[in-house]
C-alpha cells in the first residue's frame, strides 16, 4: 500500500480496528500496510486509544511479546447506554404496542440497524471478559440481536430452530415446557452447528418465565456445552422471581406493568443498570 498522510492513516487505522474487534493485530501489519516505522504506528495507536476511551467507544489493549500487537474491545459506557435505553423504553410504552397476553410489539424496532447495533454493543460490554465461543438464539426475532452482539465480539452465531431442517443434516431435538403458556414445544440444533464443550452466550428478545431460554440451556447439555451468560432485551416484570426458570441473566429493559383495558404499559431500564 502506498504511503499516506498521518491524518489519513489515523482514519484508516481506526476503521480497520473497528472492523476487527477482539482480533490481535500486530504492529508489523500496520507498518507494512502504511509503509511506516513501528514507532510512528505506536504513536498513532496511542492517539486512537485515547479517543476510544474519551468517547466511550471501547478499549485498545496492547499485547506484549513476539506475537503481540493491539486488540480492540468494543464497549459502551453505562451513562450512554442508560440514555439510549430510556429513549427505547419510552418508545416501547406506546399504547399501540400492547399485544394480547401482556407482550409488546417490537418487530419494527428489532429491524432498525442503528438500534440493534447499540443493543449489541451493550450486550458485548455487559459480557466482556467472559470466555465466549458463540452466541446462540432461537428463531426468529432474536436473530438480529444475536448477530449484532456477535459482531462486537467477533464470534459466530448459532440459531436454534423450532423444527429440524433437511438442509442442516442430523440434529439434536428436545422437548421443553414454555414458561408462560405451559405448552410442550420442540427445539432443534444441527450437530455440526456447535462444537462440544463450547462456551455459549444466549441472547433473546423477550423473556417471561424463561421457558425458551431454559430449553436452550437443556439443549446445550446434549453438546456438553457451557452457558457463558444470558442476555435478554426485555424481561417481563409480571413474573415472580420464584417462577423464573433460572436466575442468572442480564436484561436491558423491563416491562413492569401492562393494562390491557387502557393499553398502558410501563417499561423501565433492566437489571443491567441496577
UniProtKB/TrEMBL annotation:
Sorted keywords for this record are: DNA-binding, Transcription, Transcription regulation
Span of domain Bacterial purine repressor N-terminal: 5-74
Q: Does the keyword Transcription regulation apply?
A: yes
Positions of the Phosphoribosyltransferase domain: 113-238
Q: Which SUPFAM superfamilies match?
A: PRTase-like, Winged helix' DNA-binding domain
Pfam families, alphabetically?
Answer: Pribosyltran, PuR_N
Does Chloroplast count among this protein's keywords? no
Q: How does it assemble?
A: Homodimer.
Q: Which family does it belong to?
A: Belongs to the purine/pyrimidine phosphoribosyltransferase family. PurR subfamily.
Q: What is this protein called?
A: Pur operon repressor
Amino acid at each position: 500500500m502506498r504511503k499516506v498522510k498521518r491524518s489519513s492513516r489515523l482514519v484508516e487505522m481506526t476503521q480497520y480496528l473497528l472492523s476487527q474487534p477482539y482480533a490481535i493485530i500486530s504492529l508489523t501489519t500496520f507498518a507494512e500496510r502504511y509503509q511506516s516505522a513501528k514507532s510512528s504506528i505506536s504513536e498513532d495507536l496511542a492517539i486512537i486509544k485515547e479517543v476510544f476511551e474519551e468517547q466511550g467507544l471501547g478499549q485498545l489493549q496492547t499485547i506484549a511479546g513476539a506475537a503481540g500487537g493491539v486488540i480492540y474491545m468494543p464497549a459502551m459506557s453505562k451513562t450512554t447506554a442508560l440514555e439510549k435505553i430510556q429513549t427505547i423504553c419510552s418508545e416501547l410504552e406506546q399504547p399501540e404496542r400492547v399485544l394480547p397476553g401482556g407482550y409488546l410489539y417490537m418487530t419494527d424496532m428489532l429491524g432498525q440497524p442503528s438500534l440493534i447495533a447499540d443493543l449489541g454493543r451493550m450486550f458485548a460490554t455487559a459480557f466482556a471478559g467472559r470466555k465466549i465461543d458463540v452466541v446462540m438464539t432461537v428463531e426468529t426475532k432474536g436473530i438480529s440481536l444475536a448477530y449484532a452482539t456477535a459482531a462486537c465480539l467477533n464470534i459466530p452465531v448459532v440459531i436454534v430452530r423450532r423444527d429440524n431442517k433437511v438442509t442442516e443434516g442430523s440434529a439434536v431435538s428436545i422437548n421443553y415446557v414454555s414458561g408462560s403458556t405451559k405448552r410442550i414445544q420442540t427445539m432443534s440444533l444441527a450437530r455440526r452447528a456447535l462444537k462440544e464443550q463450547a462456551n455459549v452466550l444466549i441472547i433473546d428478545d423477550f423473556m417471561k418465565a424463561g421457558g425458551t431460554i431454559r430449553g436452550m440451556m437443556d439443549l446445550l447439555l446434549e453438546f456438553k456445552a457451557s452457558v457463558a451468560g444470558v442476555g435478554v432485551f426485555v424481561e417481563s416484570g409480571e413474573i415472580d422471581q420464584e417462577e423464573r426458570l433460572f436466575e442468572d441473566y442480564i436484561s436491558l429493559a423491563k416491562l413492569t406493568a401492562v393494562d390491557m383495558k387502557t393499553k398502558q404499559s410501563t417499561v423501565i431500564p433492566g437489571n443491567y443498570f441496577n
